[in-house]
Specification:
The structure holds 2 protein chains of 2 kinds.
Chain A: H1 2-10, H2 12-31, H3 33-38, H4 40-48, H5 52-56, H6 67-94, H7 96-100, H8 104-108, H9 114-147, H10 153-178, H11 186-205, H12 223-229, H13 234-257
Helix pairs in contact in A: 1-9, 2-6, 2-9, 6-9, 6-10, 6-11, 6-12, 9-10, 9-13, 10-12, 10-13
Chain B: E1 3-14, E2 17-28, E3 32-36, H1 43-50, E4 58-63, E5 66-67, H2 72-76, E6 79-82, H3 94-105, H4 110-119, H5 133-145, E7 151-155, H6 163-178, E8 182-186, H7 190-196, E9 199-204, E10 207-213, H8 214-217, E11 223-228, E12 239-245, E13 248-253, H9 257-264, E14 271-275, H10 279-288
Parallel strand pairs in B: 3-8, 3-9, 6-7, 7-8
Antiparallel strand pairs in B: 1-2, 1-4, 4-5, 9-10, 11-13, 11-14, 12-13
Classes of the chains: A mainly alpha, B alpha/beta.
């Protein structure tokens, strides 16, 4: 567990920053809710006339007038997208960073197997993502309490569970890619998370593009759908877990066999 | 003495690029073994294959009798590696890097670490990112030596070190050598190889072109002869590498010295200089003339 602790230590500033920003944004967003609630009749009419745009963000499925509906769309986007970017960042830099910064030679000339290095690094990525999600969920829960709004426990739990799995999938895919690259891959990781996000928007807008739901993790991680149905699409989630797992296994296999750059 | 490192037809290609080809080596327990060759000759590739950083393409390599690539974890427990470019995690302090290294070796080496840090005048409170090349090299030295490994792989170990630290470093290498440790020393600085190594291998374009004791490589029986007053070398056997110019000739002589003296006694010799050739000249001979490939 030496490398695991080392990774947590190295990632502590990024963890604090991302978690702090996401938590802060959730608080700010929820603080806007009482004002939004008062203007809700007008806003609901406005959203009803936005056509595809309403569907794109899942706003056709829930009511903005309810705290849970507001939370799903507004805060869902913050934690969903922000969390996805953080997960992509953590995953894509995990293995590649050592080669980019030329520290791989130091690490891998110690008596530690590459499987162990990859395993401990992946565990550190997952733990940091889990930690960020727990804090974000706690902040969101606290916001509901402070506003005196009713929290739909099941929907809330399912939403956050879906966010977590979605982020783990993205981190897993990026971790797999990380084994193949020698640069930091930051742009690649963040770009991939953004592409997944937009694929879901396209899938929501066009019936012909529904197939994209089988590719993007945002399809099962869409808070508005989860809150409206009080369920996660387990088929899509299972597919996502499979994608993430496959990427991790391919990445670890390749990392075990690759030549480490000088 | 048993072989600590043994390679058989060791070959490494990076895609289509040549790394090393059919390298057959044996490094014996307790010796200081030198690797000589210019950039790209395959010295670092050989070390990187042995350390498991790159996978061999074909052939076989073993350290401590254990196959490289299959049992790397147990091999690396007894290996200390000093890279030519010492790079560490820039956000960490020297003490943290050295403790991380200690933990990864799973061995308590606090006393040895402290001794080495004092010996090399290394401030362990400083951050890696603030260190000069020389100080980073000192961190690498402590990291490679602190767990008292059986085999030390030293790649261009003195680059970046000032002369005093170079002297201290080789004193440490000699101490470990006398304690029975095996040392692989790769260096561009040929006098370092000549002064400290028992045997050495010369690599050219990925192939081993010579491997022998440093004494033999430097040609103990061979003498460098320089004669002033004549422009052509005498016609006797054992003369090679002749360089003649107006009023001066030099050559390497590997024959009967009496015969040479007899051959020049009637020539208008103004001055005669007979010296041992240094390894650098032998090295250049191997490179300029191609050398014989083993």
């Amino acid at each position: 567990m030496i490398i695991f602790s080392h990774e947590l230590r190295r990632g502590r500033i990024a963890f604090a920053l991302w978690t702090g920003i996401i938590a802060f944004m959730i608080i700010v967003c929820m603080a806007l809710y009482p004002e939004m609630k008062e203007q809700m009749s007008g806003i609901n009419d406005l959203f009803a006339n936005l056509g595809s745009f309403t569907a794109a963000f899942g706003m056709d499925q829930i009511s903005f007038g309810e705290a849970m509906g507001f939370y799903a769309v507004e805060c869902g986007n913050i934690l969903g997208l922000g969390g996805a970017f953080y997960a992509a960042l953590m995953g894509i830099t995990s293995l590649a960073k050592e080669e980019k910064e030329h520290t791989a030679e130091f690490l891998l000339t110690h008596p530690v197997s590459r499987l162990s290095v990859a395993g401990q690094k992946l565990a550190a990525v997952f733990v940091q993502i889990l930690g960020m999600n727990l804090i974000a969920a706690a902040v969101a829960f606290g916001s509901f309490q402070m506003l005196g709004e009713t929290l739909k426990t099941q929907e809330f739990f399912l939403t956050h569970a879906a966010f977590l799995v979605m982020q783990l999938e993205i981190a897993g895919i990026c971790f797999g890619i990380s084994a193949f690259i020698k640069s930091s891959g930051l742009g690649l990781g963040l770009g991939l998370a953004a592409v997944f996000y937009f694929l879901n928007i396209i899938a929501n807008i066009s019936d012909q593009a529904r197939i994209l739901r089988f590719i993007t993790p945002f399809a099962y991680g869409e808070a508005s759908g989860i809150v409206a149905d009080a369920r996660i699409d387990m088929g899509l989630l299972g597919l996502g877990v499979l994608y993430g797992l496959a990427a991790v296994l391919i990445g670890i296999w390749y990392y075990g066999h690759k030549d480490i750059a000088a | 003495m048993q072989d600590i490192v043994r390679t058989t037809n060791l070959t490494k290609y990076y895609g289509k690029s040549r790394g090393i080809i059919d390298l057959n080596l044996n490094i014996r327990e307790g010796e200081i073994f030198g690797f000589i060759g210019p950039n790209g000759a395959g010295k670092s590739t050989t070390e990187r294959v042995l350390l498991g950083l790159v996978k061999l393409t074909s052939g076989h390599a073993e350290i401590f009798g254990r196959p490289v690539g299959k049992d790397n974890k147990s091999i690396l427990k007894e290996v200390g590696y000093l890279p030519s470019e010492a790079v560490f995690y820039s956000g960490m302090r020297v003490s943290e890097v050295l403790c991380l290294s200690e933990k990864l070796y799973g061995k308590n080496c606090a006393d040895e670490r402290e001794k080495l840090c004092r010996r090399f005048d290394l401030d362990t409170r400083r951050k890696i990112g603030e260190l000069s090349l020389g100080n980073r090299k000192k961190v690498a030295i402590v990291s490679a030596f602190q767990h008292d490994p059986q085999l030390l792989v030293l790649d261009e170990p003195t680059s970046g070190l000032d002369p005093l630290m170079q002297k201290e470093f080789f004193a440490l290498v000699e101490e470990r050598h006398h304690a029975g440790k095996t040392i692989i020393l790769s260096s561009h600085v040929l006098p370092e190889i000549q002064q400290h190594c028992t045997r050495a291998a010369i690599l050219r374009e990925g192939r081993l072109i010579a491997c022998d004791s440093v004494e033999r490589l430097a040609g103990k029986q061979c003498r460098k002869v320089e004669i002033r007053g004549i422009s052509k070398a005498p016609s006797i056997s054992g003369i090679r590498e002749t360089n003649g110019e107006e009023g001066r000739v030099s050559f390497l002589f590997e024959g009967d010295m009496k015969e040479l003296i007899l051959a020049i006694k009637d020539l208008p010799v103004e001055d005669l200089l007979i010296t041992e050739p240094d390894l650098e000249e032998i090295f250049l001979h191997y490179y300029e003339k191609g050398g014989e490939q083993k």
